[in-house]
Amino acid sequence: MDWTEMYRAEPNGVSASTSANLSATRKISMHHLRRFIFEGGILLLILAGCATWPDTYLNAAVNHTTQDDVAQSLGPPLLSQDLSTGGTVWSYTFADNSTYGCSSYILTFDREKILRGWQWQPACPQGPRISR
Question: How does pLDDT run along the chain (132 residues), one tens digit per residue?
Fold first, then answer.
């Protein structure tokens, strides 16, 4: 029997066993695709959450959070410098897994001790940290 006779003998040219195998393969593929998307999404959320925690907190804190609130959330600053304007500058350094190995956050408070701005910079400007 050639392919034309087989095509005519089977509905849609596909046998029941072949159709079942294709359906099972499609189900397995969809299962893997859904799992891949789910696991990838979880990984992205974890990485995004870890990488930007100080940034997210500080962005939300600007113009209304006090020095006491920042100290409660981030701990005491590594360095503190009073300004001639009556404000204060605080510095924090965090170890991370970035290329720089550590990050520094410079926070500026006004005379009312309200966070008015912040900046990020690499804390290891000599280059990437090498772990041994």
Answer: 554 554 455 555 555 555 555 555 556 676 666 666 656 555 444 444 444 678 889 999 999 999 999 999 999 999 999 999 999 999 998 876 655 578 889 999 999 999 999 999 887 655 444 443
DSSP 52: T
| Angle, CA of 121, 122 and 125, to the nearest 5° | 125
- Stated length of the chain: 132
Tokens standing for 115? 């966070």
CA separation for the pair 58, 65 (Å, rounded): 9
Please return the burial class of 92, using the count of CB atoms within 10 Å of its CB with bins 0-12, 13-18 and 19+: buried
Count of Cβ atoms closer than 10 Å to residue 109 Cβ: 22
**Helix (H) or strand (E) segment spanning residue 25:** helix 16-51
Rg of the chain (C-alpha set): 29
Amino acid (1-letter code) at residue 78: L
Sign for the pseudo-dihedral over CA of 59, 69, 97, 125 = positive
Name the residue with tokens 């940290």: 129
